[in-house]
């Protein structure tokens, strides 16, 4: 898989998970953040790992921790903080976005990255594609689980508490089917049990 980097959001508390730190929430004896990184490794990822998380969250060895300043600025601010760690990479580099509460989403990264190398979307020429995202219901685009050209992310207005849909809507994106729903979120104990059953 030719991803140069992955930026994973790992902040916030899980109000519906008993107020636990989401990245530290245990499923099958493993933290959600650790499940995400295990899936990254299984997908063949060998690039730069950026974790957007507060200092009290332990990050995997080799990962770079960052956080928007001040904290609690929302996912767009988190992405901006992550991009600041990738200044040495060229605009052509492919970057995956992820979240610790969707820890199986790295399973779709190879297909998303391949879409940017070998486009089969006849409505959108390869040279115009800024990124690839998991297909979802109309109006419910999963921008935060996509793979993008770094230059495309750099041109976004990543403001604090900004509206994700309106910011990402300027990009030319190709949708990739997610037939196994790898990108499902874990927000409740019931969803955590469903994840445990899938692992």
Automatic annotation (TrEMBL):
Name of this chain's protein: NTP transferase domain-containing protein
UniProt KW Transcription keyword: no
Keyword DNA repair among record annotations: no
Pfam families: NTP_transf_3
Signal peptide: none
Domain of life according to the entry: Bacteria
Domain MobA-like NTP transferase: 6-144
């Amino acid at each position: 898989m030719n991803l140069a980097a992955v930026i994973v959001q790992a902040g916030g508390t899980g109000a519906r998970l008993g107020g636990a730190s989401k990245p530290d929430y245990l499923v099958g004896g493993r933290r959600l953040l650790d499940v995400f990184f295990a899936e990254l490794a299984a997908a063949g990822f060998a690039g730069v790992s950026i974790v957007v998380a507060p200092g009290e969250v332990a990050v995997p060895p080799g990962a770079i921790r960052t956080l928007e300043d001040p904290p609690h600025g929302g996912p767009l601010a988190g992405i901006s903080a992550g991009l600041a760690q990738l200044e040495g990479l060229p605009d052509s580099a492919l970057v995956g976005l992820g979240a610790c509460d969707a820890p199986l989403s790295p399973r779709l990264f190879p297909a998303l990255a391949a879409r940017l190398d070998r486009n089969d979307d006849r409505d959108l020429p390869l040279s115009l594609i800024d990124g690839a995202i998991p297909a979802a219901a109309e109006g419910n685009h999963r921008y935060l689980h996509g793979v993008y050209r770094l230059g495309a992310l750099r041109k976004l207005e990543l403001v604090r508490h900004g509206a994700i849909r309106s910011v990402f809507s300027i990009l030319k994106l190709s949708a990739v089917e997610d037939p196994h729903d790898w990108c499902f979120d874990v927000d409740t104990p019931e969803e955590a049990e469903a994840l445990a059953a899938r692992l």
